[in-house]
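Task 17 of the worksheet. Students: predict the tertiary structure of the chain below and write it out as C-alpha cells. Keep your answer in the requested format; marks are given for formatting as well as content.
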Amino acid sequence: MSIVQSAGKGVTQVVERCEAAKESGFLDLSSCQLMYMADAVYMLIKGHEITRISIQDNSMKKFPKKFVIKFPTATILNMANNEITELPEEISSWTSLKGLNAAKNSMTKFPEAILPLKNLIYVDLNGNDINEIEVELLYSSLPNLIKLNLAGNVNLKEEVKLKLRNLKPEKMELIL
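Model answer:
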C-alpha cells in the first residue's frame, strides 16, 4: 500500500468514526495513526454531545487543548499509549471528567492540572516516567478518587511510594 493510499484510508477511518460519534456520544479515534488533532474533527461533530473520548494508540505528542472547549461534557478520556508529555492547564476546567487513562505516555511529572477535577474517580498513569508527586495535595484535591494506577513509573521515588501507601484513603485502590 502506498503512502497516499495509507493516508487516504486513515482519513476515511477518522471521518467514519466521527460520524458514528454523532449518534453514540463516543468519539473513538484510537489506533488512527494520529500525530495531532485536525480541526476537521471538530467540524465533523459540531453540535453533537460527546461524553467519551478515546485517542489511545496513536503518536500524539501534545494533548489537544480544544477537547476541553469542544467536548465540555466529556466524562471519560482514554489517551493511553501516545507520547504526550503533559496535560495543559485547560484540562482543569473539565469538571465533568470522571475517568482518565493516560497510561504509557511520556509524562515525567504528575499532571497537577487534574487536581481541580473533583469528580475524578479513576486515574491511570501507569507506564509513564513520573518521579515526583505531592501526595498530600493529590489526596486532598481528589476526594472521590477510587482507583489510582501509578505502576510502571520506574523513577518514582521509594519515599513517595511509601507516602502514597501510608496516606492513602481507605476506600481507594492504589496500584504501584
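Marker's comment: Residues 49 and 100 are 19 Å apart (CA to CA). The chain has five helices and seven strands.
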